[in-house]
Design a protein that fits this description.
With about 270 residues, the chain is α+β, with helices and mostly antiparallel strands. Helices cover about 20% and strands about 40% of the residues. It has one domain (about 5-265). It has helices spanning about 50-70, 140-145, 155-160, 180-200, 225-235, and strands spanning about 5-10, 20-25, 25-30, 35-40, 70-80, 85-95, 100-105, 125-135, 165-175, 200-210, 215-220, 235-245, 255-265. A five-stranded antiparallel β-sheet has the order 1-5-6-10-11. Helix 4 (about 180-200) crosses helix 5 (about 225-235).
Length: about 270
């Protein structure tokens, strides 16, 4: 007998804004562990840049869920005539400003982030992690993802900062290349893209939760075109480090890290 698939969703909740999150009829403050920094992860991929960006977008999506709130839709999926599985979809959409990725970490052993894992490992080996913080909360990042800031690495990587005063800064990374100059070029471009998102982040996120504890998240991030153009033109390279020995947080030889900054950033989204 052919299988019949039915998917039904019912709107349950609306959105809210910082500092409270509203789900259905309940309002509650952001938990202390999520007051300024958020972690995201990615399974291993053939392209390391994809893993870095997926983990970063996951972290930004977590921030969006906490700050912007979510719409929740609940329903069920039926296969055949008897099997039914409960499902909930959490939709987040909106604009964030002043949040950026301050560190990455390649979790070879599967220990997980301290903010999500306590006494035992809770992630798969070779998971990529990223931590994103709102401006002014960067000091919390080493507490929730400590391995991203350990070891004999440059001070500007060890002590995360999104900038001070009228200066905004971001970190970018590049996979190894045959030409050193190309790696630096790619890392600078990556950093400038992240820097533009700090000024104006358009976020869409969909989380699908099943009653059997399976969960998928699909984040999308972008920024305003005029902000990206201005950042690409005016942001300046501040620091460059090529990790020849693989001792950095991404634990891979030849990875290039850069920091770029821009003066008088533009927070005016379209």
């Amino acid at each position: 007998m052919p299988k019949l698939y039915v998917l039904l969703f019912v709107f349950l909740a609306g959105c809210t804004h910082r500092p409270d999150v509203q789900i259905t009829n309940y309002r509650f403050p952001l938990p202390p562990s999520s007051s300024g920094c958020f972690v995201g992860s990615s399974d291993p991929t053939l392209d390391p840049v994809t893993s870095w960006n997926q983990a970063a977008d996951m972290a930004l999506a977590k921030a969006g869920e906490a700050v912007l709130g979510s719409r929740i839709r609940a329903g069920s999926r039926t296969t055949g005539l008897r099997d039914s599985f409960g499902v909930a979809m959490h939709e987040t959409q909106g604009t964030l400003k002043g949040i950026g990725v301050v560190g990455w970490w390649f979790d070879r052993e599967g220990k997980g982030a301290r903010s999500e894992c306590r006494k035992q490992a809770c992630s798969k080996p070779n998971t990529m992690w990223a931590v994103a913080c709102f401006h002014g909360y960067e000091r919390l990042a080493p507490k929730i993802l400590p391995d991203a800031f350990k070891g004999p690495i440059p001070a500007w990587l060890k002590n995360p900062s999104l900038g001070k005063g009228n200066r905004l800064c971001a970190i970018g990374v590049s996979a190894p290349t045959f030409q050193k100059e190309k790696a630096i070029e790619f890392a600078i471009e990556h950093a400038k893209q992240r820097l533009a998102q700090q000024q104006c982040l358009y976020l869409k996120s969909l989380v699908v939760d099943w009653v059997d504890d399976r969960s998928w998240q699909f984040p999308e991030t972008s920024t305003a075109g005029h902000i990206l153009e201005n950042t690409m033109e005016n942001a300046k390279e501040q620091h460059v480090w090529r990790d020849k020995l693989g001792i950095g947080p991404l634990r891979r030889k030849g990875v290039t890290y850069v920091q770029v900054c821009i003066e008088n950033p533009d927070f005016g989204c379209d």
